[in-house]
From TrEMBL:
It comes from Streptomyces nogalater. It is an enzyme of class 2 (transferase). This is Class I SAM-dependent methyltransferase. Residues 60-154 form the Methyltransferase domain. GO terms for molecular function: methyltransferase activity. GO terms for biological process: methylation. It comes from the Bacteria. Keywords: Methyltransferase, S-adenosyl-L-methionine, Transferase.
Amino acid sequence: MFGPEGPTLRELAVQALSSVEHGYDLLAPKFDHTPFRTPGPVLDAVAEALAPLGPFTDGLDLCCGTGAGMRPLARLCRRSVTGVDFSAGMLDVARQRVRPTEVPRVAWVRGDARALPFADAFDLVVSFGAFGHFLPAELPRLFAGVRAALRPGGRFAFPVFAPPRPTDPGFWLLAGFDAVMRVRNALWRPPFVMYYRSLRLGSFLGELERAGFTVEPRVLPGFGRRADGSPRGRLVVARRAGAPDPAVTPRRAG
């Protein structure tokens, strides 16, 4: 799973026994050499699916990590892009790897996704692979903050992939990981919240609707379909209700 430039087993163990924030500070220099980084084909597929809904003016990458999603986000947004993450280490790496010459008008903000410091600032918010760090009870607060950060009519988008079947070894790998994390969090403080199987598509859709979004699920066709015909990859697109007022000049993000 990890190349020679990735973290050692000892480094992963130290990370797992830390808080989420400190753990990612430790992992940041080697994060892009782990399977936790969102693959390029996923980033490109999301950008391609969102392009017909644009152009967008200002975009936000929620839980941006080392900035892998900033380049495709910049292709969609005409004015500015902002990355927010609560790990200072991840943001330090992002600043080094996403240069202004590649992504102009970029801003980096250290902050908690559950308490975003923005209001009516963006037309598009995206997120890649971060929801395992939030407990189901935290979704209402998280989605309410995203809705507040969007302008009326703005969109919140993130990919969701079908979980493996019980006949797939990957199912038991993820189930085992979640079980180990629950035992670890029951015995060790501070907790490290990272559960691969705690959130389901239905939970996302219901919470988004309760938060005041109109939800538009879309298929990501490049990832094929399962044996039962259901898509392997979907893009959840949630639109903040209300048309933007053309008389109001949008605020610059960041």
